[in-house]
Write a structure and sequence with these properties.
- By secondary structure, the chain is mostly helical.
- The chain has a two-stranded antiparallel sheet.
- It starts with a helix and ends in a 34-residue tail after the last strand.
Length: 411
Amino acid sequence: MADANAMTEGKLPAIEKRVHNIHHLAQWQRSRAYHDLIGYINGTSSAIQGIKTTDEIHESDMLRKLLGLFDSLEHLVEEHPPLEQPQRFGNKAYRDWSRAMHEQLPGMLRQVLPVSKHKYLGELMQYLMEGFGNATRIDYGTGHELSFLFFLCALFKAEVLQDQDIVGAALRLFQRYLEFARQLQRTYNMEPAGSQGVWSLDDFQFVPFIWGSAQLAVKSPFDPAKFVDEQIINDYKNQFMFISCIDYICKVKTGHFGEHSNQLWSITAVPSWIKINSGLVKMYQKEILSKFPVIQHVYFGELMSFDPVTAGTMITGARLGQAAPPPSKRICIATMPATGNLVPPMPIVAPPPPPAEALNTDLSVGDSSSESSDSSVVLRPGSSASLVGIEGSGDNPTKQPASEPKERHAD
């Protein structure tokens, strides 16, 4: 694999893995990267609520150039078709595609980035190349998706993408990535990395369910109880990211939905998309971002820094169920100026109180709520999560020590 550090220009921190044992997880959860990531996910959720994937949205020239990368990656798939082999999973032609991708993608990204941003090329390339699966095991999972989320967040921190691109980055760029990841999975019969089977949310993805539920938080044309209906899937699979995920699951799995996707099936009992979004974010923090088998493979650098945040720093939560704030109030991550020092996010003006249903988040998925404000998150590492509790309140969940999963997780 190409060494991203070798491409780094200027005196920037080394791009390296920083979580080497379970004790480093607490440092990760206090890091700038962790806070920027959750802030970016929640900020995007606030921005895309009520917007369909098929709606006309702003697409900057830079966003279009980044989208063009996937056209080139698709050509590489055509040049490396699957081989005829006895194994059901893990077509070895993927390794040829991955080798070609690692050779050609650095040059592609260099052409896309402004010259003034080439100093970040190594770090951005590391996150992007790690987002397409593992060539040794020929698998793909939420850890690879996480790496692409790092890539998106870093694009905003480096100001390659601007505030007005936040909707397009999710509903165009991430959607394009999602479609291409599915193409790789189908073409090369990639195994799900670290899947927990029926007890996982999904074999391959997580974030599209978070952002998909945010799309449905305003003026949803159907209730959560109906998202597994065949007619709903057919009518809305192209309009909402959440339903596109359900459609894909139904294509690759057989049998009753509640049997092969129990965690998603349990969501049908949740009364609102706002509560679903809140519960999924908490579950993501605990079932993906708090697991050593996943985070041990994550790279950190200047843009996505392992440096700790100031004590008492809180994470901005998604404000759903109301009109999205204007771009000037949507800044949820720090940017990197020419001086190399972090510029703290602009203070967010407190919006009007959200609807009552937004305050009664009763999915029992662990505690990541704020003690002082419903729009901030206080992290308490060390509790487990499950998206099966519907009754009761999530305000005072039971604390449990984090247990390391037996299954191998994605990298």
